[in-house]
Write a structure and sequence with these properties.
The chain is an alpha+beta fold and about 300 residues long. The radius of gyration is 23 Å and the shape is globular. The relative contact order is 0.17.
């Protein structure tokens, strides 16, 4: 890159014009900080995350493994791990001149299957699988909520699809559900992230109320990260004490270990998916060649990407 181009970019990024403040959806936010300290708390909290990855992808259908995990802590002690898995087949179909995704979910533990359809509406395979994974995370939260004092999901408590809505609203009605986001989705009027802006305002451990059930948290004084916390104000201080105690692991200082562990359990590795793909092809018998040809309809880009 031309040195003068680099200088101009850096100069532009350094410029600030007038008052700087946070905005979300066009609204100015006024953050209110509360200093927080660690305190002993033995209440139960479950951290929930999910993972998914491709087993087979063709032009006409795709198969993924979806896994969700719930990690239960009592105070600082991990006491239970809940894990669920599904093999999910999504096919593109046409009905009455409209494009749909036909979905079949197979529970790996019970072998029970559920079938439903989704109108495409500019969705792609990844969108569908992401939506299904999200619903599985929310449903696990509802399943465990009576056994714990708090449910913390990886991600926000906002919903983007009508299928999510009823589960999110049901969780939020309990006043025990919270969403912790690694990216805040909130910026200043100068284009800086909430992380940059808020850490300039305050360095220690704090909880920041930005209004409308939107909060930001800084869970360790040596951490460089601010996280967004979607929550009602009720029981927030109690939860915060638990999160502080859970966020001292040097692997990711200032981030709850419960979510680190949930991610580890829920993550679907490439090795798992390759093994499942080989098993599927092997058991396809005389249809194995047909399956391999269908897969080649999507791998032209990957061949080009690997040419050196």
């Amino acid at each position: 890159m031309n040195p003068s181009s680099i200088k101009r970019i850096l100069d532009t990024l350094k410029k600030k014009k007038g008052e700087e403040y946070l905005i979300k959806e066009g609204k100015k936010l006024t953050p209110l900080f509360s200093d927080m300290k660690s305190a002993k708390n033995t209440k139960k909290i479950v951290f929930i995350d999910g993972g998914n990855a491709d087993i087979l992808v063709t032009a006409g259908y795709a198969v993924q493994l979806i896994r969700v995990a719930g990690i239960v802590f009592k105070g600082k002690k991990r006491i239970e791990t809940v894990k669920k898995e599904w093999i999910v087949l999504v096919k593109k179909i046409m009905k009455e001149k409209k494009a749909y995704f036909s979905v079949e979910e197979i529970n790996e533990e019970t072998n029970e299957s559920i079938n439903f359809e989704l109108e495409c509406k500019e969705m792609c395979y990844d969108d569908v699988f992401g939506l299904i994974r999200r619903i599985k995370e929310l449903k696990l939260g509802l399943e465990l909520i009576e056994r714990v004092d708090f449910v913390v999901l990886d991600g926000s408590l906002e919903f983007k699809h009508p299928l999510e809505e009823k589960y999110v609203k049901k969780l939020m009605s309990t006043k025990k559900a919270f969403g912790l986001c690694k990216t805040t989705g909130v910026y200043t009027n100068h284009g800086r992230t909430a992380n940059e802006y808020l850490l300039e305002q305050k360095k220690d451990i704090w909880l920041c109320d930005a209004g409308e059930n939107l909060h930001f948290i800084h869970l360790h004084k040596k951490s460089d990260y601010v996280f967004r916390l979607d929550a009602s104000d009720e029981k927030l201080s109690e939860l915060f004490y638990l999160l502080i105690e859970n966020s001292k692991d040097p692997v990711f200082l200032g981030y709850p270990y419960g979510l680190i562990y949930a991610d580890k359990i829920a993550r679907v590795s490439d090795e798992e998916c390759k093994a499942l793909q080989m098993e599927l092809i092997f058991k396809a018998g005389d249809k194995a060649d047909q399956l391999k040809k269908a897969m080649k309809s999507k791998d032209a880009h990957s061949i080009l990407d690997n040419i050196k």
